[in-house]
Amino acid sequence: MDYNNILVSQNDNGITTITINRPSKLNALNTETIGELHTAFAKANEDITAKVIIITGTGEKAFVAGADISEFANFSVAEGAELARKGQEDLFDFVEKLPTPVIAAVNGFALGGGLELAMAAHFRIASDNARMGLPEVSLGVIPGYGGTQRLPQLVGKGRAMEMIMTAGMIDANTALSYGLVNHVVTQEELLPRTQKIAGKISRNSSVAIAAGIKAINAGFIDGVDGFKAEIDAFGTCFGTEDFKEGTTAFLEKRKASFPGK
Length: 261
Known about the structure:
The protein is α/β, with parallel strands linked by helices and about 260 residues long. It has ten helices and ten strands. It has two domains: about 5-200, 2-enoyl-CoA Hydratase, Chain A, domain 1; about 205-250. The strands form two sheets. Strands 1-2-3-5-7-10 form a six-stranded mixed beta sheet, sandwiched between helices.
């Protein structure tokens, strides 16, 4: 499929890379880009050969420098609420709940909607020149794509309050110390390191990984018993072909070849 704002590629290890490609706009998210990202993530998730998805941005300056403000500067209250609702549903919540693992390779600025997209991924790796923040209050608005919910989960309430209230940026090493990113590497090492970690993931059971994502997410949903979700997912794994292959391979002292079923 041809896209206007993103690039999609897949290597022989089943690692799909989605690259936001709007360098003149520092890869800012507009409505069209959000729609294309939804389609690309959905297609990759439906592809049984796709084991891991990496999301990144073109160039060294920005992962995503924010939302395209020119699109909504004159919105009404109702239009603003609908923008947030549709964006969360189509992309940010969609990515977080995706059963295929998603890693954000954060190159450069990840601000506003860019940081919110990175936080929706299952975990993040940053280049050492990355800068992250939620500057929305400096525009008279708040984060609308899940930032007020996911940032406290990742860095704690107090740090999230400070980041959102000050509209300031933090550097990559601060993000690492906060637990916002898992690793910090040089710009040159960013994609190779991300691909290496994705390769390790791809060798494991995609069925079990999907169950693990669902169980982990359940623990962050109000009214849902995460432990019960884990028990149910654990039990379900026993009925899969991947479980039979994994346990058989272990007992036979060989490397498992998971069918993904």
